[in-house]
Specification:
single chain, alpha+beta, five-stranded mixed β-sheet
Length: 244
C-alpha cells in the first residue's frame, strides 16, 4: 500500500513538473527585465508591439544593403535577422525568439533599453532634451535608440571593438554651428559619426551589413576624419577611398 502511494505521489510530481516546464516554454519568458519583458515565444506569423521591440534589437543583423522594418510583423526578414543574432551569440539559430534569445537580449541592454555599450549621452552631445531637430524630441530619441542597437551589432561583428561616436543627434542650431548639411540625418536622430579604431574604411565597409542605408566616409567631401552612418529613406553610400 505504501509503495503504491509512493508511486502515485512520484507520478503526480513528474506530471506537475512537466506542466510547469511546458508552461514556461510556451510563454517564452526568460525572466522579468527592467527595460522590457517578452511574455511569449515569437516566430513567423506573429504580430504585435512585442515583435516591434524584438525588431529594434535585431535590426543590425541583416544582409548587405538590407533594412529591417519596425512594423510589428514577424516575417521572413525578421526571422532571418533573429537567426543571425542567435548565431552571432552562439545560440541555436532557428529564427524563433524564445527564452534563450530573450535572455541574451536582456544581458545586452541597460534598464533604459539602450544596449550596454552605448548610451543616450553618446548619441546626443547637442542638448539635454532632444528638441530642435527635424522631428519631435520623442521621435529623435527613439531613432537614436534604433541606431544604437545597430551599432551594438556592428561592434560585436567587429570583435567587440569599442566604437567612438563623435556626433549624433543635432538640433538645427547645433547642426548649423558645425557646418552640417541642411538635410542632415543628424537632425532626425538616426545618424552617428564614428572615429578611432578600427580604421574608418573598415567601419564604412562593415556598416553595410548592419542596417545602415547612408554611409559616408573617406574620399567623400568633408568625411576624411570620420565615417558617417545613418538610416536614410533614400539609400546612399560613398566612401571612395574605401572602395564604396
Amino acid at each position: 500500500m505504501f509503495r503504491r502511494a509512493a508511486r502515485l505521489l512520484l507520478s503526480f510530481v513528474m506530471i506537475s513538473t512537466g506542466v510547469l516546464i511546458g508552461t514556461v516554454a510556451t510563454t517564452g519568458t526568460a525572466h522579468a527585465d527592467e527595460c522590457y519583458t517578452w511574455s511569449r515565444t515569437l516566430s513567423q506569423g506573429a504580430s504585435g508591439s512585442d515583435v516591434t521591440q524584438l525588431q529594434i534589437r535585431v535590426a543590425g543583423w541583416v544582409s548587405s544593403g538590407e533594412r529591417l522594418s519596425y512594423d510589428g510583423q514577424y516575417g521572413e526578414r525578421t526571422a532571418a535577422a533573429v537567426k543571425k543574432f542567435q548565431a552571432a551569440y552562439g545560440l541555436p539559430a532557428d529564427g524563433v525568439a524564445g527564452p534563450q534569445t530573450y535572455s541574451k537580449i536582456y544581458a545586452l541592454q541597460d534598464p533604459d533599453c539602450t544596449p550596454v555599450h552605448f548610451s543616450y549621452a553618446e548619441l546626443n552631445k547637442c542638448n539635454s532634451d532632444w528638441s530642435g531637430g527635424a522631428v519631435s524630441a520623442a521621435t529623435a530619441k527613439a531613432n537614436a535608440l534604433k541606431t544604437m542597437w545597430k551599432l551594438e551589432a556592428m561592434r560585436h561583428a567587429l570583435g567587440d571593438v569599442p566604437l567612438t561616436i563623435s556626433s549624433g543627434f543635432r538640433s538645427y542650431s547645433c547642426n548649423s554651428a558645425v557646418g552640417g548639411s541642411s538635410t542632415s540625418r543628424h537632425l532626425y536622430g538616426d545618424a552617428a559619426d564614428l572615429t578611432g579604431s578600427p580604421s574608418l574604411c573598415r567601419l564604412a565597409q562593415e556598416a553595410r551589413t548592419h542596417g545602415f542605408s547612408e554611409i559616408l566616409g573617406p574620399g567623400y567631401p568633408d568625411h576624411n576624419d570620420h565615417t558617417h552612418v545613418a538610416l536614410d529613406p533614400s539609400p546612399y553610400w560613398s566612401a571612395p577611398n574605401c572602395g564604396i
